TrEMBL record:
PANTHER family: NICOTINAMIDE-NUCLEOTIDE AMIDOHYDROLASE PNCC, NMN AMIDOHYDROLASE-LIKE PROTEIN YFAY. It comes from Halarchaeum acidiphilum MH1-52-1. Residues 2-160 form the MoaB/Mog domain. This is Molybdopterin binding motif, CinA N-terminal domain. Gene3D superfamilies: MoaB/Mog-like domain. CDD domains: cinA.
């Protein structure tokens, strides 16, 4: 599936795209496979074109942002246009606003959704969402988006994906042979993410296979230098009181690291 974020502020770097990151995590937990994330400005034509393209290419599309009463909130109309539908006063939206306290002064535009859409109430805010064919239109405010997504999260399912992270205090280029070794020996996907050291993430649908691959790699990487609580543990080190952690994992306050 794909995630489409709408917002000039995201493109300008004024707002971090936390919605896409959160949706990616939750969808992956549900077993869905997010294959693409797209960010577009608050422009009807750009939103419409992206929705048309993504809805045709992927099983489902989650759209966030651009819902509300202000002039730059054009997402719902653009989604309607992408599916060749008219905006109508949706009966379920009208009923919701008439029967819920605190919503009587909502803008009239809040009830206008694509013809034939499924209404998604916004219990954490005002602007409603909608499901139009395979497109899920959600608010841009993170708390509202998250609450609304949980209402429909059961519609996203697939094989559960398991992830293990192995930390290596080595240059990424030095790990190539061992990363290839994981790929050759185990039925998993592997990605390396350099920063302060390298996080190697091992993913797969077989939890046992993922754990075996992670254990194989941990035995073959340099885990790092002596660390303090809150950092990563080195082989053989202890940190005050707590449960045992694997070499290569991060140590949280109260944990004991030992290998």
């Amino acid at each position: 599936m794909a995630v489409l974020t709408v917002g000039d502020e995201v493109l300008a770097g004024e707002t971090t795209n936390t919605n896409a990151a959160w949706l990616g995590r939750r969808l992956t937990e549900r077993g869905a496979s997010v294959r693409r994330v797209v960010v577009v400005p608050d422009e009807s034509d750009a939103i419409e074109a992206s929705v048309r393209d993504l809805a045709a290419r992927y099983d489902a599309v989650a759209v966030t942002g651009g819902l509300g009463p202000t002039p730059d909130d054009v997402t719902m109309a653009a989604v309607a246009a992408a599916f060749d539908r008219e905006l109508i006063d949706h009966p379920d939206a009208v009923a919701w606003f008439e029967t819920h306290d605190g919503y009587s002064n909502a803008a009239a535009s809040a009830t206008r959704l694509p013809d034939g859409a499924r209404f998604l109430p916004n219990e954490a805010g005002v602007a409603p969402g909608a499901v139009v064919e395979n497109c899920y239109v959600l608010p841009g405010v993170p708390s509202e988006m998250q609450a609304m997504f949980e209402r429909v999260s059961g519609e996203f399912a697939g094989e559960t994906r398991h992830v293990e992270t192995v930390y290596a205090a080595e240059p990424e280029s030095a790990l190539v042979d061992r990363i290839e070794g994981v790929r050759e020996r185990f039925d998993v996907a592997v990605g390396s993410y350099p920063g302060d050291g390298v996080d190697v993430r091992i993913r797969g649908t077989d939890e046992s296979e993922v754990k075996k691959a992670a254990a194989w790699l941990r035995d073959r990487v340099e885990c790092g230098e002596r660390v303090e609580c809150g950092e990563r543990v080195e082989r053989g080190e202890r940190v005050e009181c707590g449960e045992r952690v694997e070499c290569g994992e991060r140590v949280e306050r109260g944990e004991r690291g030992e290998e």
